Amino acid sequence: MRMFPDTGMVEHIRENLELVEERLARALARGGRRREDVTVIAVTKTFPAEVTMAAYAAGLRVFGENYVQEFEQKAPLLQGLEGASYHLIGHLQSNKVNKAAPLFGCIQTVDSVKLARRLADTGRPLELMLEVKLSEEDSKHGCAPEELPALVEAVRTLSGVTLGGLMTMPPFFDDAERARPYFARLRELGARHGLRALSMGMSGDFEVAVEEGATHIRLGTVLFGHRGARR
Ligand SMILES: *Cc1c(COP(=O)(O)O)cnc(C)c1O
Predict the structure, then answer these.
(1) H or E segment to which residue 42 belongs
(2) Does domain 7-224 have CATH number 3.20.20.10?
(3) Which of 18, 129, 200, 226 has the most other CB atoms within 10 Å of its CB?
């Protein structure tokens, strides 16, 4: 059975998206950048498939999910959303690679050669982005900036997969300005390796990220409201 999105929900998301677009337009103007250079990734983690369908109806096409098992449950309910694509933005354990590969078009959280090889070995035409850890927090995944050159080289030699760009998640700050140096650092690293795509910026700091060159912003709360307990 195909579920149809609730019109109230679609309207609500559409309004939130309009506000996001206004804020995004101002940030793009400040950074001297164009709208087509930035992809909004709608982060639907913890929300049911109806929310993804409503977001699609509101015009969103790229979706971010954090948990392979959660998305495995939702994916069958999302058949027929033409042109929709799904990015894994949460950490991927190597024992979930075979499950993840058919579900996602892009894996944004590749942080080791081993993981990249395993993804390539699935034979799926995946886009890989490399997650870089730019802060000292132990809780965050990602490769160290010093490890990046070797990782970039290794991924470029893999066949079947393509190297999309870099992704990062700065520590949480109440003041988004404090995330700016992290975004600038990711941009420098991308430039050094000829990687243009930069996935950085979330609900609390996407404008700063866009000013610093983000090409993919990952937005959950500003589009869908608070997620409740599970972060
Ligand atoms: C949850 C999550 C987001 C979205 O966060 P919001 O603050 O709700 O916009 C973005 N990126 C990653 C990696 C996430 O885990």
Answers:
(1) strand 39-43
(2) yes
(3) 200
